[in-house]
């Protein structure tokens, strides 16, 4: 697997435009991942998750991070869950 193929799958571009040449793919993936990082930050803020972490994950993983964040439950108080007791 080449770097362009991996970036294509991580950004989701490989599913909608599998025949993009590498420079176009990289430029489009960069712009798309910036937008998806912003979307992740907004969803994280509204659902009570760490904004900076999800912004970074949205920039790196793109579409996949947005999908995971949409599926995560809403935290009404915005606090992380309590720690589990040690066995």
Give the helices and strands as they follow along the chain. Answer: HHHHH
Query: If you compute it from the alpha carbons, what radius of gyration comes out, rounded to the nearest whole angstrom?
Result: 16 Å
Main β-sheet description: none
Low-confidence stretches: none
- How many domains make up the 3D coordinates? 1
Query: Per DSSP, what share of the residues sits in E-state strands of 2 or more residues?
Result: under 5%
Q: How many DSSP E strands?
A: 0
Overall pLDDT confidence = 85
Give me the secondary-structure category: mainly alpha
Percent in helix: 55-70%
Basic shape: elongated
Our count of helices gives 5
Span between termini: 42 Å
Characterize the structure shown:
This protein has 87 residues and is an all-alpha fold. It has one domain. 68% of the residues lie in helices and 0% in strands. The protein has five helices and no strands. The protein has helices at 3-11, 13-16, 22-47, 51-61, 63-71. Helix 3 (22-47) runs antiparallel to helix 4 (51-61) and helix 3 (22-47) runs parallel beside helix 5. The mean pLDDT is 85.
């Amino acid at each position: 697997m080449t770097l362009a193929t991996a970036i294509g799958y991580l950004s989701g571009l490989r599913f909608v435009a599998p025949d993009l040449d590498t420079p176009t793919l990289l430029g489009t993936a960069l712009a798309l991942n910036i937008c998806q990082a912003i979307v992740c930050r907004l969803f994280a803020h509204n659902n009570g998750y760490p904004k900076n972490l999800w912004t970074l994950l949205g920039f790196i993983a793109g579409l996949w991070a947005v999908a995971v964040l949409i599926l995560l439950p809403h935290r009404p108080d915005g606090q992380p869950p309590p720690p589990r007791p040690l066995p």
